[in-house]
Write a structure and sequence with these properties.
By secondary structure, this protein is of the alpha+beta class. Helices cover 32% and strands 28% of the residues. β2 and β3 form a beta hairpin.
Length: 151
């Protein structure tokens, strides 16, 4: 498995992973257009500003997606998602580890951070299992009902 730069084909596949506004919101936050089309989806992902990657297997099948950028001196992970039919196989761990290592190296930092909604208990448990800990956000919290986690 490896991280590859996101292509239009990956984006089309990714768009198919979200069938309801609720599914999209838990992943994207409140500022994504819904319903979306290819243009709005691509624009809302901020692909020109954020490092965006697909996790693919040896056959090139997209298994997961994630982004990272520098935020408050940390490699901040965002919009992490594993394909529904691939969940429970340890892919989130692989995605997060690969994004974290690449991001820390590229952004010249030692800490990884992320936001997660307080009601997303499965994700919180997974992040804790990977070594993330809840922390006080060093600025004004940008989203209500979120937890800031660092590793």
């Amino acid at each position: 498995m490896q991280l590859v730069s996101v292509t239009d084909e990956h984006l089309t596949k990714l768009m198919g992973w979200f069938n309801t506004e609720a599914e999209l919101r838990i992943w994207s936050g409140p500022f994504f257009n819904f319903p979306f089309d290819a243009h709005s989806f691509k624009q809302d992902l901020n692909l020109d500003e954020l490092n965006s990657y697909a996790l693919v297997n040896n056959e090139g099948q997209m298994l997961a997606f994630g982004q990272y950028y520098l935020r408050e001196g940390c490699c901040h992970l965002g919009r992490l998602v594993v394909a529904l039919n691939m969940r429970g196989q340890g892919l989130a761990k692989i995605l997060i580890n690969l994004l974290s290592e690449q991001g820390k190296q590229q952004l010249h930092c030692n800490t990884v951070s992320l936001f997660v909604y307080t009601h997303n208990t499965l994700a919180i448990a997974a992040y804790k299992k990977l070594g993330f800990q809840e922390s006080k956000y060093p600025a004004v919290m940008p989203l209500a009902d979120c937890i800031y986690m660092v590793k």
